[in-house]
Amino acid sequence: MIEKKGILFVLSGPSGVGKGTVRKALFEKSTDLKYSTSMTTRNSREGEVDGVDYFFKSKEEFESMIEQNQLLEYAEYVGNYYGTPREYVEKTLQEGKDVFLEIEVQGALQVKKNFPQGVFIFLFPPSLEELKNRIINRGTETEDLVRNRLLAAKAEIEMMDAYDYVVVNDKIELAVDKIQAIVQSEHCKRERVAQEYKKALEADFS
């Protein structure tokens, strides 16, 4: 019997690149991926649902989880905490199911330290001009916050080398297709398959 552990896929990229939009489009298609909902202390935006888009927590609740080591990663970003509950991810991978995370760049780099066997996908804007427009057109932020987000986005793009794949988000459908192709390709990787078969062979012939 070949025991398959799930693969952790991490989608990340600069603020305003459209991570949430791409993730929603991906999960609207037929997929076996399990989405790990992130946790945040920021206020919910219009249309966001607690427990679906994010788990919305108070700063006190979040800090208590940090102390108890209940987060796979967390980061403070423009004055708010973002993080990934550890238990769900570990349990789901153990059950042989793939887990999909959509998180900020700082958080993705922490996951990479804790979970180097994960697959890291960097979502890239079609152009920096386009990224600037997306951040400004959200209309939810003050001028200062927009400037901070743009500076943060520039610094995040420079961290691209830490990732396994880069997907340009020019058209949402194309970005989703590429992510699905990455998932398939990772399941066919020789190192991954060989490892699973080797374990099975050892068990059968020992």
UniProtKB/TrEMBL annotation:
It catalyses: GMP + ATP = GDP + ADP. Gene3D superfamilies: Guanylate Kinase phosphate binding domain, P-loop containing nucleotide triphosphate hydrolases. ATP binds at residues 13-20. Keywords: ATP-binding, Cytoplasm, Kinase, Nucleotide-binding, Transferase. Its EC number is 2.7.4.8. One of its GO terms (molecular function) is ATP binding. Essential for recycling GMP and indirectly, cGMP. This is Guanylate kinase.
